[in-house]
Amino acid sequence: MSHKRILFVDDEVQVLDGLRNLFRRQRHLWDMVFVTSGEAALEELNQAPFDVIVSDMRMPGMDGATLLRHVKTDHPGVVRIVLSGHAERAAMVRALSVAHQFLSKPCEAESLRAALERTCALRDLLANDVIRRAAGQLERLPSAPAAYWELAQALAQPDVVWQDVAAIVERDTAMAVKVLQLVNSPFFGLSRQVVSVQQAVMYLGVELLKGLSLGAHVFATLPAVDVPGFSLDEFQRHAQRTAQLARRFVNEPVRIDEAFTAAMVHDIGQIVLGLGMPAEFGAVCREVQLTGRSVEDVELSRLGVTHATVGAYLLGLWGLPFTIVEAVAYHHSPSLVPGGPREVLAALHVSEAFAEAAEKGPNVEPIIDRRFIEDAGLATRLEQWSVVVRRDATEKITAASA
To answer: What is the Cβ-side half-sphere exposure of residue 259, based on CA atoms within 13 angstroms?
Structure first.
């Protein structure tokens, strides 16, 4: 593992001195540079590459949001972390489109250390600089137009309640990810990570969602993913089918929301590739259509990385819970995960296999890693899940013929 270069930016010298002392033991792992202004930070970035930048939000002259916008444009491969006080919500909204993570200020030493260590580890997950830059350039993921306008109309109602808003957000992958990214940032100071979209919407509140959606346009639709063979509508439908099954494949109540959320975002790396590398991803889609090979196999041979890894990288940068990031990363190759709790990963792997098979035709068998299922002690559960899917299919056929 090579040394990571981290740039710290704060206009208060004593804060930088404190950070320098705090991370003295990391000097054998991190090359750290400390500067007191946004202008000085840009000069450093122009002289040598960095892996991570950690910037204060409120600084004279160039503030943190403006600085990170420059970094995003000129150095898109750099991971961008912003420090912001709890009274700076308006400033935080400005930084939403340019920051990967939000940390509260003052920030506990261990929280900042853990965030930086996790960020550095995630960078090592993707050795492909081209893919990393593609992910770094994304301000936000596209939402289906219908979902965006449905949310905007709901938020415009004076008597809107959070349950109605949550129902809309749950149906849209991009909005669900952004809401979970925001509520799980240390900025909100929650004692535990939130994996339920409904809980996230409840914590954020309708007023803040209005500001995010209508004021900052966080959920506004990006230009379409212009890749032949890729459909955002089909992507959303597949995510919803998978999520509905995954929710039913989990016994532990505390894991149900994790499984649902992981399933909603499991293929989000395809959007990253479609937006950041449209030509390369288009070639992948064409080969899949011509050969019938799986998307992940073609991605690996052409790009050296799969959409699962790319999606996990982005979700990890955004601070989503580890269980979700892990499930997304390995949903096509679950046997690569060693021991430990694997119920969420198993639910996602199996539900995605059933959803994909159903989309291909009524008699298509799902491709399931049965060795993983057996090693995880879930062979009996797999039979139960198969019964659920067959019963659902029978009920749909009966309803259609009635």
So the answer is: 28
